[in-house]
Design a protein that fits this description.
This protein has one domain (about 15-120). The protein has helices at about 1-15, 50-70, 120-130, and strands at about 30-35, 40, 75-80, 90, 95, 105-110, 120. It has a 5-stranded antiparallel β-sheet. A two-stranded antiparallel sheet has the order 4-5. By secondary structure, it is of the alpha+beta class. The chain is about 30% helix and about 25% strand.
Length: about 140
């Protein structure tokens, strides 16, 4: 009988959770402007910090913040406390940035012009992830 009630409780809790919707996904993500061109973006993860949806939503919001602030490209310079992934460095002017794989918390640096080396194209990331999660109907 305990098993039955445990399963019933899980089903009820799951039914109460608000699913990802075009009008609520931004509420799940926090962002902080750190500098003129630097932001920290966090999406809550599950017990598994590598939760694909959380990582994707953090990446999506990073792209949106980039575009909303007049930039076209971004580089993740820190992710979930980890720096210096296996990617080559990105250079812009006199600055060199080591960058990380996307995670549920990303610190990003944004650029108007494409830097030398790896950088995300914000418009492409935004379009592909909004399509993946059926968020295309989100009003701008």
């Amino acid at each position: 009988m305990k098993v039955f009630y445990s399963v019933l409780l899980l089903l009820l809790l799951n039914a109460c959770a608000k699913p990802l919707q075009p009008d609520n996904y931004r509420d799940l993500i926090s962002s902080t402007r750190v500098d003129q061109d630097t932001f920290q973006v966090s999406s809550p993860g599950s017990a598994n910090s590598e939760d694909e949806k959380s990582v994707d939503l953090s990446l999506l919001r990073s792209a949106e913040i980039t575009l909303e602030n007049g930039f076209n490209y971004f580089v993740i310079i820190e992710s979930d406390g980890q720096q210096d992934s296996a990617y080559e460095a990105t250079t812009y002017g006199d600055e060199t940035y080591s960058h990380s794989d996307p995670g549920t918390t990303n610190t990003i640096v944004c650029f108007k012009q494409k830097p030398q080396g790896f950088a995300y194209v914000a418009l492409f990331v935004k379009a592909s992830l909004r399509s993946k999660y059926n968020l295309d109907q989100v009003a701008e």
